[in-house]
Amino acid sequence: MADWDALAAVYDRQLSLERRAVVAALDLAQAGPRDVLLDAGTGTGAVLRALAARPVRPRTAIGVDVSARMLGRMPPLPAGWRVQRADLRELPAQDASFDVAIASYVLHVLEPGVRRAVLAEVRRVLRPGARLITVTVHVPERPRLRPLAAALETLARIAPQRLAGLRPLDPRPDLIDAGFSLTGARTTALGYPSLCVAARAPG
């Protein structure tokens, strides 16, 4: 697994490669002024930065990340928004606290057991019927793209401390297993090849 504290100083250099997928995720999320939003695995705040620049945004947003150094690079946030250091398997929130959750470029860096625990915890803090949007590196299942998928898998495996974020993942089976209902998906090709999935919490 990557050492995110060690990567914090250089992490922002690659945010332009995330930008297109983050925009797609926010379009799927449709977070409005009455919503309370969770940014799970916020890192240095790519999602919160993009969301703060939108004319319509939630009244409350909380970014959670395990890396103090990543959070230390967060820019100033709008009033009512904050960040908190915590393990995503133990979110600092009561049951049914959020209307929207975004997990951008985080699920694919987690081992399967940890990923299941994180999704269960996100489900716990979402209100019934609330929206979850995930973003993962993903290469479509096409013969001509198989070498790219294999290359990303290899890089993530041989250099997990620095390149774990390149591991492709389609999170939809995990989301279904966690009890979420799939409601939509978008792919982006510019920057990191990515899959944005929209789902709803049960209820």
Widest β-sheet, arrangement of strands: 3-2-1-4-5-7-6
Task: Could you tell me the CATH topology label.
Answer: Rossmann fold
| CATH structural class | Alpha Beta
Euclidean distance between termini CA atoms:
34 Å
How many individual domains?
1
Order of helices and strands: HHEHEHEEHEHHHEE
What is the SS-derived class?
Answer: alpha/beta
Mean pLDDT across residues? 88
Q: Mind telling me the C-alpha Rg?
A: 16 Å
CATH architecture: 3-Layer(aba) Sandwich
Specify the helix fraction band: 25-40%
Characterization of the model:
There is one protein chain. This protein has helices spanning 4-11, 15-29, 46-52, 68-71, 112-125, 146-158, 160-163, 172-177, and strands at 36-40, 60-65, 81-85, 98-104, 126-137, 181-188, 194-200. By secondary structure, the chain is α/β, with parallel strands linked by helices. The chain has one domain (4-200): Vaccinia Virus protein VP39 (Rossmann fold, 3-Layer(aba) Sandwich), CATH 3.40.50.150. The protein has a seven-stranded mixed beta sheet with strand order 3-2-1-4-5-7-6. The termini are far apart.
Summarize the structure.
This protein has 203 residues and is an alpha/beta fold.
